[in-house]
Amino acid sequence: MNITTRLHLLEAIRRAEQAVTARTAADRAYTRATKAAADALTETRRHQQQLADTPDSDHTQHAEALEAAQKTYADCSRRQQTAKAKVRRTVAAARAANRGLAALYTPHARGRATGGQRRHAVAAGLLDELASMPLELIRAADAILVHSSAGKDSLVMLHRLATWAAQAGCKDKIVVVHCDLGDTSEWPGVRQLAERQADRYGLRFIAVDADGGLLGLVEKRGMFPDATRRLCTSTLKRDKANVLLTVIVAALGLDRQALIINCLGIRAAESTARSRKRGLAIDTRTSNGKRLVLTWHPIHALSDTEVWQEIAAEGLEYHPTYDALIPRLSCVFCVLAGFSVLVRAVRLCWALGLPLAERYEELEARIGHRFKEQCSLADVIKEAARIEAEEGPLTWRRGDAIRDQLGDDAVDDYLHRLALAA
């Protein structure tokens, strides 16, 4: 099976999945409409009974209430019929999409046809095959968006993708996208570093500004995000990048569906949730008839140590925040960070002369919402001050991140490579 056939199958699976999702949504809407109609009918009958039991002299008020109830019931009944019709349409569309998938896949099926197999199992097999052939996947793509935070994982992902694209002769397809959260959310120099990292490979770089950053989002909502409501990621990054995705597809000017690959530097070792993600997946939320969007995690299987080994071996420039032993280049104060990391972030702010800790503490007090359920920013700052009193200001050296992971010899070799690349 060639790559074109695999992609056609994935598009058929995407259509079938979206058709089934639409059918499920229609079923739920019909259930809600049916209940609303039943409730309205019950209310109408109650008013009818009240009217029947009321003396003629008091009929007016009950008659008006009955008329309003009857109108509500008529409206609910119309919505119920509309919802029922949509169920019929979506059931027919789902069946047609599944038949189309079966017809397309049957010639390639082993043992039995698609009708006897689960769509997600077929998709998983196809996606695993595509992930194992990066050069072919890159050649097949119309555009490749590399989402870069300028962090260590984005850096290694970018290096691998740029290397593969050069081998495939397709570097022009890559667009490096950086969502800039601003100086109230990010460490100094992040945007400039992301651009330098892209420039190293001669890749197109686009920075997307997130209005107000995390601080602005919290000001607007009156509360901080948390692990279950990560609006900082969806609002400040994903939604902004999706607007750019639409622009890029339009600029291609294709008279067919475009294949877009969104590349993210997430790894299984980072969290249980991320360990469940696949190396390559269909993004059904942003895919449509104009574009098939695949989400690719090229370094999903790498450990922390392997990431730093590649950075050291290739002489890749990373942000100095890592040398202060801050494990991730996320927001200065990330709601997902542990207490000890937040304490270290406060100390690093003080060492760099950044007033962010105090600004976040003031915001926390003003909106009356704790930074995290487990701790407030005030608690973090208090602990940072205690440690500073005992140990003095935070200090670090260039290469400490590599030293912490790989030892002194690796640092010397890395700094030598970095000097040669300058």
Automatic annotation (TrEMBL):
Record-annotated Phosphoadenosine phosphosulphate reductase domain positions: 144-334
InterPro entries on file: PAPS_reduct_dom (IPR002500), Rossmann-like_a/b/a_fold (IPR014729), Sulfate_adenylyltrnsfr_sub2 (IPR050128)
Location of region: Disordered: 37-61
Entry protein name: Phosphoadenosine phosphosulfate reductase family protein
